[in-house]
């Protein structure tokens, strides 16, 4: 990300495409000013973030609000034409990966993970964790179709893969962890820190096991 001479900066960078804060969408063979589809009026406290689909076919603007819903507005990167607006659950946890948009929400029923293919938005949701999670702030990490969820009320991270929810066995002595990078690229990678403050990068297996993947200096 960088600042340009006119004071603009990159909001998102994809495979062969980039979107600047002045509305310029640049691809390998074009530069054009784009406008995202109009959202419903009267939204409370809208905030925007930007992403590209994995193939950069779509530029996606995700708008979180204090209203009843969030929204994803889309533009075709090749033509600059508007591609519609999707209604999303109201949550801070929206992730664009591949050609899908994933949303994790927390409420009185538990933690719910939804997937919406882009641009059609035919939503499919599943309850990942049952039990009241109202007022909690879970975190969603996404690697393609693989999700890792940090549940504030749970002792272990959760791997969501092929319809299964599997607890992840963090290395013994882990003091903290977070998602790391884009994967290797087929499995999730986590950055853990042990009690001595040493970082480790571990690869998550389909059974929830973890193995050291990369050693880096502190």
The profile of the biggest β sheet is: 4 strands, antiparallel
Q: Which parts are unreliable, with pLDDT below 50 for 5 consecutive residues or more?
A: none
Please count the helical segments.
Answer: 0
- What portion of residues belong to β-strands? over 45%
Mean pLDDT: 93
Number of strands: 20
What share of the residues lie within helices? under 10%
Could you tell me how far the N terminus lies from the C terminus, measured between alpha carbons in angstroms? Answer: 25 Å
What is the global morphology?
A: globular
What is the helix/strand order? EEEEEEEEEEEEEEEEEEEE
**What integer value in Å does the Rg equal?**
19 Å
The chain-level structural class is mainly beta
In the sheet with the most strands, the strands line up as 1-2-3-4
Brief descriptors of the model:
218 residues; mainly beta; four-stranded antiparallel β-sheet
Description:
This protein is mainly β. Helix content is 0%, strand content 52%. It has no helices and 20 strands. The chain has strands at 10-14, 17-20, 24-27, 30-33, 47-52, 58-64, 70-76, 82-88, 93-97, 100-107, 110-117, 124-130, 139-143, 146-150, 158-161, 164-167, 174-179, 189-194, 199-204, 210-214. The strands form five sheets. It has a four-stranded antiparallel beta sheet, with no helix packed on it. The chain has a four-stranded antiparallel beta sheet with strand order 5-6-7-8, with no helix packed on it. A four-stranded antiparallel beta sheet has the order 9-10-11-12, with no helix packed on it. A hairpin with a 2-residue loop joins strand 9 and strand 10. The protein is globular. The model has no long low-confidence stretch (mean pLDDT 93).
